[in-house]
Design brief:
single chain; 6-stranded mixed beta sheet; globular
Length: 233
């Protein structure tokens, strides 16, 4: 399977985060190395609009066969369009079968090659159309409330029947963690979605599901990595 690592040059939440140094190497390098070490990935490609990111990506072993067109480099550019562009470019210029491919976001550096290989094997074993890595939600959706026009709170209606249940007896809910996606080109092209009735989840633990968006996220991941390197638990 071919993997793409999308890495735009601009970032409002944490400027320059994709190449910000994390435990001695740029953030994106952690994802590149995980993909390169994964047995189920045969090509690792970075899709970026930044020459600086492209140079760093090549240094760590990824391919950067193109720079994104300007239309796919803005804050408002759709991820779906970025993935369609990648798939069509690789099919046209390299003859790759792009019906299915993997997306690895650089903002999830705690995902490793073992996770990648397990996800591909699970997807193949289940004969699924797409796969999304997820982690258990910290708060059951039945506990969400809104304030009504009278200033009183009322259940948001996402499973209100379980609103007073303890967490231990409540239904489990899962959210995407941004680490691994196995996508279907035709589903993206025709319906612009990652999901259909044959989508499965690869469940990851919360500790390795941190998706870096803020400085706090970055520092939390850095602390965890340094602790693990020192043999902490």
């Amino acid at each position: 399977m071919i993997a793409v690592i999308p890495a735009r040059g601009g970032s409002k939440g944490l400027p320059g985060k994709n190449i910000r140094e994390l435990c001695g190497k740029p953030l994106i390098a952690h994802t590149i190395e995980a993909a390169l070490h994964a047995k189920e990935i045969h090509r690792t490609v970075v899709s970026t609009d930044s020459e600086e990111i492209a140079e760093i990506a090549r240094k760590y072993g990824a391919e950067v066969p193109f720079l994104r067109p300007e239309s796919l480099a803005s804050d408002t550019a759709s991820a779906v369009d970025v993935y369609i562009h990648f798939a069509e470019y690789m099919a046209e210029h390299y003859g790759e079968d792009m019906n299915k491919f993997m997306v690895l976001l650089p903002t999830a550096p705690l995902r490793n090659e073992k996770n990648i290989d397990e996800a591909v094997r699970l997807w193949r074993q289940r004969n699924a159309s797409t796969l999304i890595s997820m982690t258990e939600a910290e708060t059951p959706v039945s506990w969400y409330y809104v304030e009504n026009d009278r200033g009183c709170i009322e259940n948001a209606g996402f499973d209100a029947a379980n609103a007073v249940n303890n967490r231990q007896v409540n239904r489990k809910y899962y959210i995407p963690n941004g680490a691994i996606y196995i996508l279907d080109y035709m589903l993206l092209k025709n319906k612009r979605t990652y999901y259909d009735d044959n989508t499965i989840a690869y469940i990851m633990d919360k500790e390795n599901s941190i998706d870096i968006d803020t400085k706090w996220d970055f520092e939390l991941v850095e602390y965890k990595m340094r602790k693990e390197r020192k043999g902490g638990t």
